[in-house]
Amino acid sequence: MAAAIETVRLSKSYGSSRGVLDVDLEVFTGEVFGFLGPNGAGKTTTIRVLMDFLRPTSGQARVLGLDSRAHRAEIHRRVGYLPGDSSFYDQLTAGEQLAWLADLRGGLPARVIGELAERVDLDLSRRIGSLSRGNRQKVALVQAFMHRPDLLLLDEPTSGLDPLVQEAFHQMVAEVVADGRTVFLSSHVLDEVDHLCHRVGIIREGRLTAVENVADLRSRAGRNITVRFAEDVDPAPFAALAGVEHLEVTARTISLRTSGDLDELMKLVAAHHVVDLVSAPPELEEIFLRYYEAAEP
Amino acid sequence: MTAVTGRPAVPAPAAPPRPRPLRIAARSLRDRRRALLAWSSGIAVYVALIVAMYPTIRGDSAMTEAIQNYPDAMKELFGGAANFDYTRPGGYLNTQLFSLMMPLFLTAFAISYAASTVAGEERAGQLDLVLATPVSRRRLLLEKALAVAAGVAALTTVVTLVILAVGAAVDLGIGTTNAVAASAGSGVVALVYGGLTLAVGAATGRRALAVGAGSAAFAAGYLLEALSGLVEGLKPLRPLSALHMANGSVPINTGFPLVNLFVLLLVVAAFVGLAAVLFERRDLGTS
Questions:
Q1: What pLDDT score does A292 carry?
Q2: What value does the mean pLDDT take over residues A8-34?
Q3: CA-CA distance, A141 to A153, in Å (whole number)?
Q4: pLDDT for B228-250, tens place per residue?
Q5: Which helix (H) or strand (E) element contains residue A13?
Q6: Under 8 Å CB-to-CB from A251, ≥6 apart: which residues?
Q7: Opening angle at CA B261, ends B211 and B156, nearest 5
Q8: CA distance A213 to A200
């Protein structure tokens, strides 16, 4: 099946250090692809090149099989874009802004906008200038989805959204994928990537350092485990377990990260009187850090 | 069967939806309707006062005489010594309105509008969502230019109508054609410097730089026109001043300087064309 996005040695340099270098990215039609990286790593730059807002210094990008520069209008007709920092005409109501953007796409039935607004709980009659950040993000979501695009390019789509609306957004993404359409999103939230994305690309300092299947990434990332005991415990046997790192002992609490066998660890823990136990997936930043440590010479 | 009737078996795919025309220009003007109303009111009051005062000034011979005895250098700053004649309504209006104040007001409006509507909106991130639609950058720029021109045309119309209406009330004695010609000259001057501002903003995305370029060019054009009456060597350069081209012939007395206005409109078109080309070629930024 044709790739929804394909970049070949895509580079964009500007100013000082920002930009991207030699990015070879392939996003398959019908998948949800997560684009992960710290701020300034080049996520927004890449998306803005795909939108033809920025021109590549070298290399090229194809979106929906079309050259990003030569077929800009056709691409924009079939792409829904959500900018990382949405800015609207504040004096308009949400409904006016959306109807106007729909006009620029040749017009859409008002019903379509109304239904989407209802799903994300957006009041179309309010002036955009009076909306909170989360509500502005809803406006941005509606405009990205309203023309049923073949590809959604979403830059931090859930930032500022409350959990209920995030749930509605996840549902909307699921429907897009069920239709065989494609979603490309950047995110910092591991849980979200876990729920939504089939694959992730990790970008660091402008370079695409890894493309991973989410399930693999997750299993390799391991768990952070903190156990509080009722008695003093010798940490040595824990440290000796395979896959255990970053072991810390404070009073009667042991915290560690493990990518090894949980069963062995639990049996060691069970030999003592346990007061409390917390097991959590690591923060995305932590997974990043590990990638970066691995990448260091 | 389809072969017999010659009709295709499958209906041709519907033409892809096209952006509806002039939505960007209309939106821009609507968003600025309060500013337009404020500028119109201010200019209308100013022009009305100037025109309404004329009978008093003409009737006060001591005053007209004192004014006629202003030093030539002073007169050059307001349309030239040769045209400085408060005993005639055309001379009075040229000095009071068309030698500086009307072009200045209309140009200030055009520059601030042209700078904010492209470079300003780009910096604010407002253009991203617009340009994410199939609307091309060139189309956006042309519609924005059209909106600025429509705003200038509206203010120009206000100037004309107030001169004619108040003029009729005080028996001013200025013909309609000449009133239109002089007002249009101010409007075309505003379009020239507004066009330059639009081009600099479109080329750089920097609003302050655009405002600076437009304002500096207007100031230079005005000084050139004013000083060339005092410094003989500057006279050959006067065609570089839009103010001179549009108002040097004192259209409030002589009517439309058609060739000059045509040349200025070509310059405006060139600025807008340049703006479209440069806007198309560069990276879009947000702050």
A1: 59
A2: 90
A3: 11
A4: 888 889 999 999 999 999 999 99
A5: strand A3-13
A6: none
A7: 60
A8: 6
Q: How many cross-chain Cβ pairs, A to B, lie less than 8 Å apart?
A: 81
The residue with tokens 């340099």 is A13
Tell me the pLDDT tens digit for each residue of B91-112.
999 999 999 999 999 999 999 9
* Residue in B24, B126, B133 closest to A87 by CB: B126
Q: For position B2, what pLDDT does the model report?
A: 39
Asked if B198 contacts B192 with a C-beta cutoff of 8 angstroms, the reply is: no
Place of tokens 């056709």: A74
Indicate the SS3 state at residue A127: strand
* Element spanning A62, H or E: strand A58-63
Could you identify the residue written with the tokens 């409030």? B252
Q: Calculate the alpha carbon distances from B126 to A88, B118, B132 in Å.
A: 5, 9, 11
Q: Do B132 and A14 touch (CB under 8 A)?
A: no
For chain B, percent of residues with pLDDT exceeding 70: 94
- β-bridge pairing A199-204 and A58-63: unpaired
Nearest-neighbour CA in chain B from A203: distance (Å)? 21
ipTM for the predicted complex comes to: 0.87
- pLDDT tens for B57-88 read 888 888 788 888 888 887 887 777 777 888 88
Interchain proximity B20–A51, CB inside 8 Å:
no
Is residue B1's pLDDT more than 70? no
Q: How far is A294 from chain B (nearest CA, A)?
A: 34
Class of residue B259 by CB neighbours under 10 A (exposed 0-12, middle 13-18, buried 19+): exposed
Check A104 against B128: CB less than 8 A apart: no
Average pLDDT over residues A214-231: 81
Q: Which of B113, B108, B274 is nearest to B190 (CA)?
A: B108
B194 within 8 A of B214, measured Cβ to Cβ: yes
Q: Which residue has the tokens 């519907």?
A: B14
User: What is the CA angle B254-B224-B101, rounded to 5?
Assistant: 60
* Matching residue, tokens 């109303």: B37
Q: What is the pTM of this model?
A: 0.87
Of A108, A107, A10, which Cα lies nearest the Cα of A63?
A: A10
Residue A62 has pLDDT above 60, yes or no: yes
